Amino acid sequence: MNGKTPEEVQIFIPSLQKIIGTLESELIKAGVSNILVPGMLPLGCFPGYVSLLHNVDPTDFDAHNCHIGLNNVAINYNNHVKESLSEMRDNRFYSHALSEEGDRPYSQTLYGDYYNAFMEVLRDNSNNPKALFHQDGFHLSEKTNKYIVGKLLSGNNFLQPEIHLPDITHCVM
C-alpha cells in the first residue's frame, strides 16, 4: 500500500490481470494441466492492512468491522482476474495458438473465490473472529485456512468453473 489510499491502489489491478493471463499461458505451454488461481482475500478484514491506512473513519467499516475501501480493492481485483481467466478459456477453446502442438484439451484453470469463502467463514464464526482468523493481523491462522479450503471444496461455487469432487476428499495442509 505504501501509504496509498485504496482508490490509488486500484490503478495497478489491470497490470496484475495481464500478468496472471501471461503466467497461465506459460504454464499451459509448459504442460501444466491443472491450475488454481486464487482470488484476493478481503483485505479490509485484516487488521494489519487496515493499520497501514491513514485517516481511517468509523464510517469506512461494514457490519463485520471490515474496511469497505480495502475490500473494494479486492473485489475489483477478483473481478479482473475472473475476466482474464474467462478470456483465456475462450481463447483456448477457439484457438490453438498456445503451443505448436495445439491446445491441451485436458488443461483446466480454476478460479478460487477466496474472498467469498473467507466471508462465509467470517459469518459462520462471528462470535470470536480475532481468536480464529489472524495470526498477526496479516496472515490467517491454520484453522482459518482449513475452513477456507473446506469452503473451496464444498461444491458451493467457490471454485469456478465448478468441479465435482468425490464425497470423500482429503486435503493435507
How would you characterize this protein structure?
With 173 residues, the chain is mainly alpha-helical. 46% of the residues lie in helices and 7% in strands. The protein has helices spanning 6-9, 13-29, 47-51, 68-94, 114-124, 129-133, 142-152; strands spanning 34-38, 108-112, 159-160. Helix 2 (13-29) runs parallel beside helix 4 and helix 5 (114-124) crosses helix 7. The radius of gyration is 18 Å and the shape is globular. The relative contact order is 0.15. Mean pLDDT is 81; it is low at 94-99.
Number of strands: 3
Order of strands, main sheet, comes to 1-2-3
- Name the beta content range: 5-15%
Estimate the global geometry from the Cα principal axes: globular
Distance between the termini: 29 Å
Low-confidence stretches: 94-99
Q: Which percent bin holds the helix content?
A: 40-55%
Query: What is the gyration radius calculated from CA atoms?
Result: 18 Å
Task: Supply the helix-strand structural class.
Answer: mainly alpha
Listing every helix as H and every strand as E from the N terminus to the C terminus, the arrangement reads: HHEHHEHHHE
Compute the average pLDDT: 81
Give a quick account of the main beta sheet: strands, pairing sense, barrel closure.
Answer: 3 strands, mixed
H/I helix tally:
7
Features of this protein?
3 strands; mainly alpha; 173 residues; three-stranded mixed sheet; single chain
